[in-house]
Description:
Layout: E1 5-6, E2 9-10, H1 14-25, E3 44-47, H2 50-55, H3 57-60, H4 64-68, E4 71-82, E5 89-102, E6 105-115, H5 122-135, E7 139-145, E8 148-152
Parallel strand pairs: 6-7
Antiparallel strand pairs: 1-2, 3-4, 4-5, 5-6, 7-8
Amino acid sequence: xxxxxxxNITKPNExxxxxxxxxxxxxxxxxxxxxxxxxxxxPQLVSISKNDIARSPELKGVKGVNLKxxxxxxxxxxxxxxxxxxxxxxxxxxxxxxxxxxxxxxxTYSHVNxxxxxxxxxxxxxxxxxxxxxxxxxxWIVETAKDTYRIQADxxx
Length: 157
């Protein structure tokens, strides 16, 4: 496995790339969340079932361990201080990661912090997850104006 790591994100090999891409993009069982709440919500957003493998030709040639342990998980919420004194606001972001493996050998292949409680759209989150995997670096989805969102590389300030 290529273990080039940046921002704690591992560069995927071919099988891992197939699996993570499938989890992000599959229209039936892949990532489909438009909004991620700051409170509550199921921690596991995507996993791969035997039925998924059976109906997805791209997954059939992948090693079993990559399929059995692959998930997209909600890893928690971080509050990020944004603005300048005295107008600093704590903005919640939901940490989402695509991972494969079993602890302690569980690797992250995509990492995105999504502004919480806002309907940013599944397509934007998927785009950010794909970008993160391609550049092996975290991505942030931030609100730039009311109901307007963008992907950025740097933590918002």
